[in-house]
Design brief:
Number of helices: 12
Strand content: 15-25%
Shape: globular
Helix content: 25-40%
Structural class: alpha/beta
Radius of gyration: 20 Å
Length: 356
């Protein structure tokens, strides 16, 4: 059946990849990518989108007027966000709140008017910092590892599950995404909205304009590619802090499944990520990037922990795997190779954005 899908943040890393892949798989579908183009480098994705027939709409989800879309929309995929964990910590959270919370409310209203299905890309950062800091973990030569016995529910050596406690501070970024989840539940209960929430961990892949506070995998590869300095920040400069990572193509596989089985997943909240099998410490990431690029880069060691950082986060995706059969299919080596090949191919275009 032909569908019309609106993807917000449609020129960003996640949105542009989802739009491109959906249009490539379903050429008869109408895919609209809406983006404000605020993030540097996002404008480079417009030709990429148009090459497969994705319609680009310049607009900002903070402005209700930009969302006056008359044609029938079947699904909205909300990939628009200010994704930095450091956003708002300078005392000015207004842009963050206007984008991540008020912008989502505008989209929920749009979905309600169109009776459209809603796929909300939330974040693992909705889980509180202090609770994550106090988990039981051990240290080996290369990384921190979660213990199987933990002081709270929703955590094991396999990572963080959806039942993990939510009480406590989590960052302004995480708070805006959790607030959006709560408002979304009200729309489900009282307006009949049909929605699914994916709490995504680290996502990476080609076309990501990586920064230190989000997009760290691409940043690491880019700094190795151009032989620029990197830093191990906090945890005594050990580089042993751990994250799991999900290839953007694996996220597409999940979203594609949800679109096809929307009645079954509506009302669900899933933790989505690479899981224990696709996890890395910064120390391990450095070795992988050096091996792929053939370059070594100087590493500065900063002993003091950064505000909002945590020693380890791994996604336990058991629930979504059990209920949908989805499982991450790309390993870390595949992910890093894909990123390297993209940077190598578009080196001239990307140097001013990623090499700094």
């Amino acid at each position: 059946m032909t569908q019309t899908i609106l993807i917000t943040g449609g020129a960003g890393f996640v949105g542009s990849n989802l739009a491109f892949l959906l249009k490539s798989k379903y050429p008869d579908w109408k895919i609209i990518a809406l983006d404000s183009l605020k993030r540097r480098g996002s404008e480079l994705n417009i030709p990429f989108l148009k090459s497969v027939g994705v319609e680009f709409l310049h607009g900002d989800i903070r402005n209700k007027e930009d969302l006056c879309i008359d044609e029938k929309i079947d699904f909205i995929i909300d990939a628009a966000a200010e994704p930095s964990i450091l956003a708002g910590l300078d005392g000015t959270p207004d842009y963050l709140i206007n984008t991540n919370l008020n912008g989502t409310i505008h989209l929920l209203n749009l979905a309600t008017r169109h009776n459209a299905g809603f796929i909300f890309l939330s974040t693992s950062r909705i889980y509180p910092i202090k609770t994550l800091e106090n988990l039981n973990y051990r240290e080996n030569d290369f990384r921190f590892e979660l213990e199987d016995v933990q002081p709270v529910q929703g955590c094991s050596k396999n990572g963080i599950a959806e039942t993990f406690p939510l009480l406590g501070a989590r960052s302004f970024y995480g708070a805006t995404k959790l607030a959006s989840e709560l408002i979304l539940q009200e729309y489900e209960a009282f307006y009949g909205l049909k929605a699914v929430v994916n709490r995504c961990g680290v996502i990476a892949g080609p076309r990501q304009m990586g920064k230190v506070d989000q997009g760290v995998v691409v940043l690491w590869m880019a700094r190795h590619f151009w032989k620029k300095v990197l830093s191990y920040i906090g945890y005594n400069g050990s580089g042993k802090q751990v994250r799991d990572v999900m290839h953007i193509y694996d996220l597409f596989d999940l979203v594609d499944y949800e679109l096809a089985h929307f009645t079954e997943v509506a009302g669900k909240v899933y933790n989505a990520g690479g899981g224990r099998n696709v996890s890395f410490s910064l120390k391990e990431l450095t070795e992988h990037c050096a091996e792929i690029t053939g370059n070594k880069t100087p590493i500065e060691k900063i002993l003091t922990n950064r505000t909002g950082d945590i020693p380890i986060y791994i996604t336990d995706h058991s629930l979504v795997t059990e209920e949908t059969g989805w499982n991450p299919r790309r390993n870390l080596q595949t992910l890093l190779t894909d990123i390297y090949e993209w940077i190598k191919k578009d080196e001239k275009q990307l140097k001013n954005i990623l090499a700094g």
